[in-house]
């Protein structure tokens, strides 16, 4: 019997988070680090890890998350505890898409600012083929 190459169905919580964030645009997910990265219109805006939704933040938006009492995304590493620029979504924002709208927009704006401040990717140079040498006979 051939093995199926289809990925397993997304969890209900993943599907719900995609629906919540759809108020900001087209949502896609990718597996990452044992969780999922969520992208709105191609921009990385959220991490879904251990059934928690974390939204992207930057220097301009992190105060809003902190004022709402949202914990920052942390992870264990060989050097101790690390942090990323993502904060847990407020509980009330998980209730319905309209409650998520301002938070999704905040995360999307952070992602847009991050993209605008990054330098363009360096173009890859094609390596020239080595010069051909005539066969020595």
TrEMBL record:
Coiled coil: none annotated. Residues 19-110 form the TfoX N-terminal domain. Residues 113-137 are annotated as: Disordered. InterPro entries: TfoX-like, TfoX_N. It holds the Pfam family TfoX_N. PANTHER family: PROTEIN SXY (PTHR36121:SF1). This is TfoX/Sxy family protein. It comes from Ideonella livida. The lineage of its organism: Bacteria, Pseudomonadati, Pseudomonadota, Betaproteobacteria, Burkholderiales.
